[in-house]
Amino acid sequence: MFHPDFTTLRIFLAVYNLGNISKAAARENIASSAISKRLHSLESELGAPLFYRHSRGVEATPAGEMLAKHAATLFSQINRMTSEMSTFASGVAGQVRIHAHTSAIVQYMPSQIASFTKAYPSVKIILVEDSSLGVLQATIEGLTDIGILAGNMAFPDALDVFDYRHDKLVVLVPAGHPLSTSGGVRFADTLGFDHVGLAVTSSLGTLLAGAADALSMTLKTCIEVKTFESAVRMVEAGLGITILPDGVLADKVGNDRVCAIPLLDEWSTRPHVICVRNDRQLTTAALFMLDHLRSVP
């Protein structure tokens, strides 16, 4: 008889959705060898192979497709049960799990969550910061109620996607930099200078790398950091220039060590979206939060 454990099923779903054991290992913060061992044990227990393995990664077998369907449904039901039973366990009227990328968390969500919790103080908010790809995968896998991420990516039919916000990218340069007196610059004009970049796996890093490729030019990243604040600090120290959303610089007004210059390329206005799975019934608390995110500034 098949006796699955939730950790193995979650890892299986990560491999299934990413199509690659190494990527799943990075996402789950576990060694690739440990994932392979769990998958082999799972296949032995089921008596059927779950993946075709090839040089580019893995592809689900019919048995793998069937297990993925049931596992996703199982996690969806467990998450719903956990949310609704929290009312009885702790007196909380509801719980909403949100996965969001950094741009949304820094620019928009603090005020929105504050106004929501003021209106609905008995609802518990669990907010997880992740890359846009991580948010997308968590939403697909039913690990979150609501996902907020960059809109410049492909979304599967299994998700309902709603407009959320738009931000504007700016070029941040040290005071006295050759670009500092410009009223606006195009991305191509920045490529002759050293950039302080975010990880290429971030939505912004992916966008900029793609824009450079489209110009058949090279993005010269001299320093790679993980946070907007770190990028600003590097520019303040004169170590390069960086491209950031204008909203993350709100508290930098009056900083005479840096200058923010509008980026003029059409793609520099970026959409952000909200996504939810269209095959699951959101709790009342999650529905209220979804409406709040879409309607309240």
Task: Tag the structure with descriptive keywords.
Arc Repressor Mutant, subunit A; globular; single chain; D-Maltodextrin-Binding Protein, domain 2; 11 strands; seven-stranded mixed β-sheet; 297 residues; alpha/beta; 3 domains; two-stranded antiparallel ribbon
Strand content: 15-25%
The number of domains: 3
Question: Regarding CATH, which class of the largest domain?
Answer: Alpha Beta
Count up the helices: 11
What is the CATH homology-level superfamily of the largest domain?
Answer: Periplasmic binding protein-like II
User: Whole-number average pLDDT?
Assistant: 90
Radius of gyration: 22 Å
Major sheet size, sense and barrel closure: 7 strands, mixed
Low-confidence stretches: none
Distance between the termini: 52 Å
CATH structural fold name of the largest domain: D-Maltodextrin-Binding Protein, domain 2
Order of helices and strands: HHHEEHEHHEHEEHEHEHEEEH
The number of strands is 11
Instruction: Report helical residue fraction.
Output: 40-55%
GO molecular function: DNA binding; DNA-binding transcription factor activity
Family: Belongs to the LysR transcriptional regulatory family.
Organism: Mesorhizobium ciceri
Keywords: DNA-binding, Transcription, Transcription regulation
